[in-house]
């Protein structure tokens, strides 16, 4: 009881051990130094020209001597690392592939960016007739360089419906909620998945890296994308573009992201302070496309000043099909426990045609059951950090049990992630290292999991800090480590040895339990 009161996980005494001694952190290199090293590396034999790699012929590169990459075939073969075990998942990489001789060329992903569309976006010549007509009818059009309205008449269309009731919804999660991770969660029982938050301005500019966040795997049978923007016209044109170019079941608008760079642009949780802007955004987007528009909000902007309950009745009238309420304010970020009583209050105030979902601190099937029984008006619950730490939470909820998962079973889940990552990011050197990077980001969360069999009190709570402990076998002990060096060792079991000089620091600073890059 004393440990739980201090938010320290009550691990059984026989598994406790002294905390590890701290290690010195290497000095970080400057951005200029890193850029210079990247340029030098591109010309090295390890960075073979993609055209030469595909064909095996030096003369196949159209850039000849002006090419940024190496054409040294013999040098590349001499330094190429040993091939990884297994079959090539999907390969346009030729000689650069780390799975020699087992190539396949079929992808099961959709929502790529068409090159012709990208060029129109680059030149600001893309037309948005539906969005512009709706904005004009609402008086929300701004004097931008935009397409002609045409003679399109606005009319009320029948909205496509989506039913979230009782479905297990994996929250959109920046960085770690990538397509391979979502595939892992689908295998383990997630019903609804959503892409990582994409910024509208970047999508409208045709940025390939932003469009990659909209990609969908064929296993994602109920899938949405999450977008973030500050103004009705930007969001309306974005939803029209997504409706034209992508296959999605719903479009979620982020109005809860607490990150400064987003809030300072007037987007994310900044919109919680501007209800009329929220109204304009929801009306404009829902009036532009037939796809269901959902929104994700926090309880309010400032701590102690919740306000969503006063807007919840209007949100459905404005045109949203569903709203997810994260039970914290923007000021709280991820500190303190989510306010589920307030989420229940919002769900009870909503109209019958607006589905309300709750979000915050769900980490076991008991949490899920409690929220659903305490408030039958809730359509469902969204699971975020709980899924990052233990993605098998979806299995636990469906099977109504605490799964005392073994280290071997956990390693198999990580193997699935590595395989899915190589299919998504590629099986050449760059693809392997990109997969490794995102695997390490995920491992910086999974190390917080404490096996059921090691706890004096179950289930583990999301805010409990694990003490230093040993697992029931060496692999379980390794998986419990919060050291990046140990995460790298796990990655080497799955993706081979890291390159010389490799270092890793997690994006979200895993020592801060109240932070996670989740909008």
Automatic annotation (TrEMBL):
GO molecular function: flavin adenine dinucleotide binding; mRNA dihydrouridine synthase activity; RNA binding; tRNA-dihydrouridine47 synthase activity; zinc ion binding
Superkingdom of origin organism: Eukaryota
Cofactor(s) this protein requires: FMN
Any one Pfam family match given in the protein's UniProt record, by short name: Dus
EC number: 1.3.1.-
Keywords: Flavoprotein, FMN, Metal-binding, mRNA processing, NAD, NADP, Oxidoreductase, Repeat, tRNA processing, Zinc, Zinc-finger
Gene Ontology biological process terms in this record: mRNA processing
Keyword ATP-binding among UniProt keywords: no
Reactions catalysed, as given in the entry: 5,6-dihydrouridine(47) in tRNA + NAD(+) = uridine(47) in tRNA + NADH + H(+); 5,6-dihydrouridine(47) in tRNA + NADP(+) = uridine(47) in tRNA + NADPH + H(+); a 5,6-dihydrouridine in mRNA + NADP(+) = a uridine in mRNA + NADPH + H(+); a 5,6-dihydrouridine in mRNA + NAD(+) = a uridine in mRNA + NADH + H(+)
UniProt-listed CDD domains: DUS_like_FMN (cd02801)
Zinc finger (C3H1-type): 48-74
Compositional bias annotation for Basic residues: 28-37
Family per record: Belongs to the dus family. Dus3 subfamily.
Functional summary from the UniProt entry: Catalyzes the synthesis of dihydrouridine, a modified base found in the D-loop of most tRNAs. Specifically modifies U47 in cytoplasmic tRNAs. Catalyzes the synthesis of dihydrouridine in some mRNAs, thereby affecting their translation.
Protein name: tRNA-dihydrouridine(47) synthase [NAD(P)(+)]
């Amino acid at each position: 009881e004393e440990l739980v009161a201090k938010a320290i996980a009550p691990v059984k005494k026989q598994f406790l051990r002294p905390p590890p001694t701290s290690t010195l952190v290497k000095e970080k290199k400057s951005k200029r130094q890193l850029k210079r090293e990247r340029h030098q590396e591109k010309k090295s034999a390890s960075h073979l020209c993609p055209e030469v790699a595909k064909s095996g012929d030096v003369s196949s590169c159209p850039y000849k001597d002006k090419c940024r990459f190496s054409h040294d075939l013999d040098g590349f073969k001499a330094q190429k690392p040993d091939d990884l075990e297994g079959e090539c998942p999907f390969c346009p990489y030729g000689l650069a592939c780390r799975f020699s001789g087992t190539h396949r060329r079929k992808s099961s992903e959709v929502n790529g960016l068409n090159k012709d569309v990208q060029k129109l976006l680059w030149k600001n010549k893309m037309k948005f007739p539906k969005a512009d007509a709706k904005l004009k009818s609402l008086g929300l059009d701004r004097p931008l360089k935009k397409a002609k309205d045409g003679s399109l008449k606005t009319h009320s269309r029948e909205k496509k419906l989506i039913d979230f009731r009782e479905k297990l919804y994996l929250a959109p999660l920046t960085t770690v909620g990538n397509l391979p991770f979502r595939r892992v969660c689908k295998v383990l029982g997630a019903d609804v998945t959503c892409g990582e938050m994409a910024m509208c301005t970047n999508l409208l500019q045709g940025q390939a890296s932003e469009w990659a966040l909209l990609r969908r795997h064929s296993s994602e049978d109920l899938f949405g994308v999450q977008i973030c923007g500050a103004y009705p016209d930007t969001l309306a044109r974005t939803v029209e573009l997504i409706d034209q170019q992508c296959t999605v079941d719903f479009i979620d608008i982020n109005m809860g992201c607490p990150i400064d760079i987003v809030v300072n642009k007037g987007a994310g949780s900044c919109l919680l302070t501007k209800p009329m802007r929220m109204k304009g955004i929801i009306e404009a987007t829902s009036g532009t496309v037939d796809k269901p528009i959902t929104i994700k909000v926090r309880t309010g902007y400032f701590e102690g000043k919740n306000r969503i309950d006063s807007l919840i009745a209007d949100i459905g009238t404005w045109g949203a099909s569903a709203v997810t309420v994260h039970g914290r304010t923007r000021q709280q970020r991820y500190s303190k426990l989510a306010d589920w009583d307030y989420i229940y209050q919002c769900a009870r105030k909503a109209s019958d045609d607006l589905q309300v979902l709750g979000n915050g601190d769900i980490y076991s099937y008991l949490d899920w059951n409690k929220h659903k029984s305490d408030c039958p008006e809730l359509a469902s619950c969204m699971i975020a950090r709980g899924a990052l730490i233990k993605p098998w939470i979806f299995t636990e909820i469906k099977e109504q049990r605490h799964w005392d998962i073994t280290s071997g079973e956990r390693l198999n889940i990580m193997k699935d992630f590595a395989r899915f990552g190589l299919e998504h990011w590629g099986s050449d050197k760059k693809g392997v290292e990109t997969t490794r990077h995102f695997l390490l980001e995920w491992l910086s969360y999974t190390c917080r999991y404490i096996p059921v069999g090691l706890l004096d009190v179950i289930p583990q709570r999301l805010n409990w800090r694990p003490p230093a402990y040993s697992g029931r076998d060496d692999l379980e002990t390794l998986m419990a480590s919060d050291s990046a060096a140990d995460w790298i060792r796990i990655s080497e079991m799955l993706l081979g040895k890291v390159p010389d000089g490799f270092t890793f620091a997690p994006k979200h600073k895993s020592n801060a339990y109240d932070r996670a890059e989740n909008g």
